[in-house]
Amino acid sequence: MHRLGSQSTVHRFRLAALLLCSRCILAPACVCLLIYSMYIGDPKLALIGVGLGVLTFLIVMLQWLISARARCPLCLTPVLANKYCSKHRNARKFLGSYRLRVAIGVLFKGSFLCPYCHEPTSVEARPKRPQHSRH
Predict the structure, then answer these.
(1) What pLDDT, in 10s, does the model give residues 118-134?
(2) Residue 113: CB partners within 8 Å, gap ≥ 6?
């Protein structure tokens, strides 16, 4: 099982996965809230729905920036970004998304299977090699 290069990469993976999962929850909630507020005719609830939509948009932008640097340690493809590369033939989806499956694995299992090279990766930093001094 592969490991990530540094502790900052581990934090980047976890943050990008958290933002992706929150986006998948906030976007439908925003749409449902806006539809409900129009149904009952409540302008305050509609304003909350619009604010939730703006928050969702900001989360999408932040997730897009962070996930571009969250790369598989083997194939160096950003696994949490929206790439249109061909996937491995055994790659599986979760609720229609390869990225969501990776994000769930990062957050709850502490490991993921890369959808591009299909290699397992543990979400922990590699141990540092000791520096040998030259004599």
Answers:
(1) 889 988 888 887 777 66
(2) 91, 101, 102, 105, 119, 120, 121
